[in-house]
Write a structure and sequence with these properties.
By secondary structure, this protein is an all-beta fold. It has one domain: Methylamine Dehydrogenase, Chain H (7 Propeller). It is 2% helix and 39% strand. It is built from two helices and 34 strands. The strands form nine sheets. A four-stranded antiparallel β-sheet has the order 3-34-33-32, with no helix packed on it. A hairpin with a 2-residue loop joins strand 5 and strand 6. It is globular. The protein starts with 25 loop residues before the first strand and ends with a strand.
Amino acid sequence: MKYFTSRVASDAAKTAGITLVLALTFTRGIATSADHWPQWRGAAQNGVAEGVEFPSKWTTEKGVLWKSSVPGTGGSTPVVSEETAYITAGNEGKNLLVAYDLSNGSTRWSVSIGNDKGGKHKKGSGSNPSAVIDGQHIFAYYRSGDLACINKTGEIVWHINLQDKFGEDTLWWDLGSSPTITNDSVVVAVMQTGPSYLIAFDKKTGDQKWKTDRMVGAPQEAAQSYSTPVVVEQNGEEWIAVMGADHLTLNRASDGKEIGRLGGFNPEQNAYFRSISSPVASGEIIICPYARGATITAVNMQQLAAGKGEEAIAWVRDDLGSDVPTPASLEGRAYVVGDGRTSRGLITCIEAKTGKTIWEVQLPKSRISYSSSPLIAADHLYVTNEKGTTYVIGPLSSESPELISENPIDDDADFTVASPVPVAESLLLRSKRNLYRIAGE
């Protein structure tokens, strides 16, 4: 199936500004507030923060409230709730979930959850997936297959190992897919060379609610995905969008039933089209980076669920992409971080419905790449490179946003892969060795 034939040309026309002040909302039963960041890309999984003021400039000497060392290794983005940040890490052969006091960076508690399998890739570890928070519980998932529910005092409520139950991990590299949550379940996607599936567990008990096979016939490494499922509200119910193994699938969250599938993302059957960047939703449109950063495809989820197949494709770009960073999305626009050899550091704002370019900003040219995903906060875009330097672009409501500042940290060891996180109009940033809370100059 070959549909990567059309190309949306860059559109120099400017559109009206947007307002980025967000009201207090409730997303899939999760209360969102200025100090609540319950999963890797935020409550709506779109990389958008609440609040109207965030730091736009800091240095290694000024603007850092505190810095705390993190144990062992890990690449997970922090999650935040009730003045506490949570990270996963591997240390001394154990998987850890660590809770930090946001007021001063001290460790509240640390709990061990199975044995750390370590990492294969220079950017990887056994603790790349981010935890997810719901109510009084935190759910953590590791390369070892361990999945656990922990309460906010650090006690394990339930603990299972997916690989013990359903087969060993066959990924060539390190697990990167974070769990996500629906109204009543924690959901994990396993996409690999071998048994692949989407599975949901009861948040309270850990009992399996449903399991749906996801064997789609992608060749070799292309069958492997490190992306995270996205929960979307459509037609008054929760759907789960999963991108990887050359396919986009839609499943009903209540029972796991597949309600839509689109293949053709790898028409030449390239054996090495593993996917890392996750999709991002904008209304009915879901935007899917693929092909190692060579393409972006937008799909109308309503039309796909209605069985329209390729006709559900809204647009395709074969001149734009993102291999590792997941785009951010707000008010009909998506923000893409280029990380290819020729596109590294190119920030592109596109119209979600059409794929047309609204504006571009080129960050300073460098050999340093980007593995973290962008954050939209208070009319600015925050983009962090693998040395931990964060670039601030804005105002996003202007016709021509510009690079405002370039902000280093004092730990520039390779590789920073965690994304910046908002907390009460400050930022959390996890580097290779440290966790920072940044208030700005």
